Amino acid sequence: MTIIPVASGKGGVGKSTLSTNIAITLAKKGKQVVLVDLDLGAGNLHITLGVKGISHGVGTFLVSPQMDINDLVMRTEYDKLFFLAGDGGVVGLANLTFQQKKRLINALMTIRCDYLILDLGAGSGFNTVDFFLISGRGVIVTAPNMAATLTAYLFLKNAIFRIIASAFPKDSKGAIFMDHLKRDGLSLQKIYITKLLEQLKIADPEHYPKFERTLKAFRPRLIMNMLDEPSSASKAERLRRTIVQYLGIDIEHLGVVFRDETQSRALASGLPVVIYKPRGVMTQAVNRVVDRIMLAREGNAAPFLKADDIEAGYKLAEAEASEDYMEKMGSVETFFKEGSISDGDIIETIRTQQYELNQLRKENRFLKSKIVKASKDGFKL
């Protein structure tokens, strides 16, 4: 079984939509897939999937000590695709105890399928990060705006802190070193991981090799979603450079996905977009992502990609973005000529883009103020 946790640093970047469409596409390619809603306390993946009448799921399992999780996995209308709902109606589901989380993770490992896709909650909460770390090959979904890329970076940084916490036992020299940093009032988010690791290696040479092995096995993957223009694809490469420089890990690029105007119509019809528009731009992009996932079928034991291979993936994604954009623009022109898109639709699109630009300006002003403050305070380890 290949486990694919799908996460995002913030909501609204299309994570659940992509999880659903990737799952369906894998199933259409003959793989047995189980899609799990792990957005605990706020799960609505059944809506994206078009499943109605949910009465049980992860929540049922957590409040039923003798329950076998496989009995809660339900069939869907798509051949070879199965679904485990979040069942967010259970009180306290968003705040799992350690024992509940451990039991759930162990149970997920017993599910029988080719691919287990875990749609996680947005943000960098402990539960979300821990579920993401079930596999070293988790997928981060982000969008080409500052808020989305920044929170994707911070998500991965928090994941590394969790790896540190698990690799250095309580009362070890490494754990004591980390406790001293916290007690000194130093914000861990201001620490450069690469510098921190140098000091950890000196502080605890006994446990550092275990941590180093775990970190090398941590090979997250990226999907840049909601592109509006080809130039936005280059932001993935910039994000990668930042991750390599300041976090000391590399990240593989699974592909780019353009914003698709048919997505809202597909959702309203209760159909995932790969079913609603099988030859659409988004469907083509999802197919490319799935092909790359299937190439890494070895799962967590897959050999590491060389840096040159990862670099080539980013260049390919930028080329694909240009091709998708041209196809998308051709489709818009066709719809307009046929009268499927009215002047009002175009005006509404421009208004929406203007609103998004205003939001980006606000984000930029906020980030500039943060940068100015940080430059005054200084970044210290």
Automatic annotation (TrEMBL):
Transmembrane segments: none annotated. One of its GO terms (cellular component) is cytoplasmic side of plasma membrane. InterPro entries: CobQ/CobB/MinD/ParA_Nub-bd_dom, P-loop_NTPase, ParA/MinD_ATPase. It comes from the Bacteria. GO terms for biological process: negative regulation of cell division. Keywords: ATP-binding, Coiled coil, Nucleotide-binding. Residues 350-377 form a coiled coil. Pfam families: CbiA. Residues 6-273 form the CobQ/CobB/MinD/ParA nucleotide binding domain. One of its GO terms (molecular function) is ATP binding. This is P-loop NTPase. The lineage of its organism: Bacteria, Pseudomonadati, Spirochaetota, Spirochaetia, Spirochaetales.
